[in-house]
Amino acid sequence: MQLFRAHVLVCGGTGCTSGGSQEIRARLEREIQANNLENEVKLVITGCHGLCEMGPLVIVYPEGTMYTHVQPDDAAEIVSEHLLKGRIVQRLLYKEPMTEEQVPHYGDLPFYKKQHRVVLSNCGYINPEVLEEYIARDGYAALAKCLGEMTPEEVIEEVKKSGLRGRGGAGFPTGLKWSFCRNAPGEPKYVVCNADEGDPGAFMDRSVLEGDPHRLIEGMLIGAYAIGASEGYIYCRAEYPLAVKRLKLAMKQAEEAGLLGDNILGTDFSFHLHLKEGAGAFVCGEETALMASIMGERGMPRPRPPFPANSGLWGKPTNINNVETWANIPDIIRRGGEWFASMGTEKSKGTKVFALTGKVQNTGLVEVPMGITLREIIFEIGGGVPNGKKFKAVQIGGPSGGCLPESQLDLSVDYESLTAAGAIVGSGGLVVMDEDTCIVDVARFFLSFTRAESCGKCTPCREGIKRMLEVLDRIANGEGKMEDLELLERTALVIKNTALCGLGQTAPNPILSTLRYFRDEYVAHIQDKKCPAGVCTNLLTYSIQPELCRGCTACAKVCPVGAISGEIKKPHVIDTEKCIKCGACMEKCRFGAITLG
Amino acid sequence: MSGCACGNSGPQYPELEEILARYAGQRGALIPVLQEVQAAYGYIFEDAIVRIAEALGIPATSVYGVATFYAQFHLKPRGRHVVRVCQGTACHVRGAAKILAAVEKELGIKPGETTEDLRFTIEPVACLGCCGLAPVMMVNDDTHGRLTPDKVAEILAAYE
Fold first, then answer.
1. Is A287 on the interface with B (CB under 8 A)?
2. Taking a C-beta distance cutoff of 8 angstroms, is the pair A433, A501 a contact?
């Protein structure tokens, strides 16, 4: 095996790729060759490092130097300075947003310090397109351990001991789910991976699929062995082209290496894996809808029971877990259930990956032990709210989750605490909102999403969500009444209690949680006809500050309805009757004379 | 369904027949077949629905039902370039509505519509999963992130 004195890791995740990381890789390759370093320095394209905000990222080992916002033109300097002369390129280092201090080492970044990476341990370290790199990081060792030393029952026991719960949202104990399917009568049995990550604001599964696809395959193989399944499906959403490509490649590599197919590792165990691409329906993340879609039907949920463990794909026992759940399995087997259970809280074990986005300094993926506080995630890892703005709320768990205010930030992040507070762990999307975000608008946003994605099968979800949205539209337009708040609460509870599937039952959560914590803001819209955050356009008026206006006429020219008048070089005025509140004048004004209030 | 009135023998839609032949006898083939037909022809045309139903031994209404259930399938021709403007939560709080408005203004069409010259189709999407780059849009398979409304025109101009 050839040894290299340095490794240059270029992030090939979706964020960095769109920032030009392929071009950076090509330029680095050229520079490495031009300096005759190809036998000393190895260039690797990796999966996502998580700190998407700072991308494109390039990391040089053995030092662990992280370069941020790298441009193709920086390639020459990185090679000639760092790789040839051993001098760090200071200007590309990460700077602490608060202190402006440069942080040369990857591991010293506050963003990574508080994290504990299990599921993401290989993301950003290995080339996801090379099977050997996964194996070099103990990949497939857990599978070998299962097939060689453990009975299927022992595997299930180990998973039960770990306390792992489903990472897709509901948090059902994984080991228990497996045992139901193992004990259910019927052959063949199926295992399914739910990779239909549809929650807006969540991309943790995407990063595992793109950055460490073999981890998922190994997890599914172990599950199939434990349950007694001979066939499996990965249902991946079609909006993730890179994930689909890397999965297909990884499956082919595993087949060629004898890790998928008949008589795996020379044993009696056989397992065939298929990839199904979704066709764009959020409701397919619900397990019975997902199975309908795999079978080529409309992806509509059906009542449970029967549960998939008894009657799933083609009426056979089927076990469905999501990507992150499967991805935890190899480490649980290799390091033991007790090791996993040593992390987290009493009822929520292990780590959880969160997608930290919105109005936060360091957007990206973070993996933390369960039980950490929201404050630690948002302020210590995420670096807080940018541009000196004030924190207002954090939305957790996507369209099924809730908005939590400042007062709930010291809450422990685990299944029970978040549910009690009116949110859910869900898939793990954390969207931070600042004072410029309107809570009524956010509730409307989620409701328009669930309304559009409702499959229409059951009445509470199909009609109820539509009615709630109408009420919210009224409130946002300044036509709301105080009784509307009660109507919202009553409708929300009916939908919660009577909808057919998880999508409908959780759709009212954004309304209920915002009414609980931000009632004042609804009242301001209804009674004062004001949107405190300045978002709901029907409650705002544009006006020109005469002392700032130079009379340049730019605004009058851009106004599509001719609502602005005035003489040249004299202050202009907006006719609020004519104004359609498009905001074009405000964008055009170079003197900041147009205000919104 | 083989041959048309023009007198030429052989199937009218050879690519469709080739796709159907590859999936013959497979369970749950309908969605992948529709995906491939759409990739080959750009949309799901009426004759294809009838022919797929016949080949898979299911009613044409079921094929139509599936094709209209999923957002990915289109029963009308679409533009050469599909502009997917992300409307996810992270993009929403970082101004996605303004990006969509800029795309609409630039192309003169509404979401879900196609320009007359079949150059562009606008397709709002719930989340593209690259929230770190919000607000984001994709043109075909290219992701464009950290957008501002004034960048839109230049990006679109690159797609002929």
1. no
2. no
Give the 3-state secondary structure of residue B94: coil
Output the domain CATH number for residue A382. 3.10.20.600
Q: Residue A150 sits in which domain range? A: 131-341
Residue A151 sits in a domain whose CATH number is 3.40.50.11540
A120 found inside a domain: no
- A384 inside domain: yes
Q: Is B9 on the interface with A (CB under 8 A)?
A: no
- DSSP 3-state helix, strand, coil percentages of chain A (rounded to 5)? 45, 15, 40
Closest by Cβ to B73, choosing from A279, A297, A395? A279
Which residues lie closer than 8 Å to A425 by C-beta, 6 or more apart? A169, A171, A348, A352, A396, A397, A413, A414, A415, A418
Task: Give pLDDT tens digits along chain A (597 positions).
Answer: 688 999 999 998 878 888 888 999 999 999 999 999 999 999 999 988 888 888 899 999 998 899 999 999 999 999 999 999 999 999 999 887 667 788 888 878 888 888 999 999 999 899 999 999 999 999 999 999 999 999 999 999 999 999 999 998 789 999 999 999 999 999 999 999 999 988 887 889 999 999 999 999 999 999 999 999 999 999 998 888 889 999 999 999 999 999 999 999 999 999 999 999 999 889 999 999 999 999 999 999 999 999 999 999 999 999 999 999 999 999 999 999 999 999 999 999 999 999 998 899 988 899 999 999 999 999 999 999 998 999 999 999 888 899 999 999 999 999 999 999 999 988 889 999 999 999 999 999 999 999 999 999 999 999 999 999 999 999 999 999 999 999 999 999 999 999 999 999 999 999 999 999 999 999 999 999 999 998 888 898 889 999 999 999 999 998 888 999 999 999 999 998 888 887 888 888 999 999 887
Residue in chain B nearest A18 by alpha carbon? B143
Q: Domain B81-157, CATH 3.50.50.60 — does that match? A: no
Contact assessment for residue A177 and residue A164, using Cβ atoms and an 8 Å cutoff: no
Residue in chain B closest to A533 (alpha carbons) equals B93
Residues contacting B69, CB < 8 A, separation 6+:
A281, A298, A299, A300, A455
Residue A435's φ and ψ, nearest 5 degrees, are -60, -20
**Six-digit token string for A252:** 């082919």
Contact: B29, A293; criterion CB under 8 Å: no
Instruction: Supply the ipTM of this predicted assembly.
Output: 0.84
Please say whether the structural domain B9-69 has been given the CATH code 1.10.10.
yes
Within 8 A of B131 by CB-CB distance, chain A residues are: 52, 201, 203, 355, 357-358, 363, 431
- What are the two backbone dihedrals, phi and then psi, of residue A194, each rounded to the nearest 5 degrees? -85, 100
Which of residues 158 through 187 in chain A touch B, CB cutoff 8 A? none
Q: Rounded to whole angstroms, how far apart are CA atoms B156 and B80? A: 12
Tell if the CB–CB gap between A357 and B89 is shorter than 8 Å: yes
CATH code, A569: 3.30.70.20
Calpha distance A453→A283 (Å, rounded): 6
Tell me which of A61, A78, A109 is where a domain ends.
A109
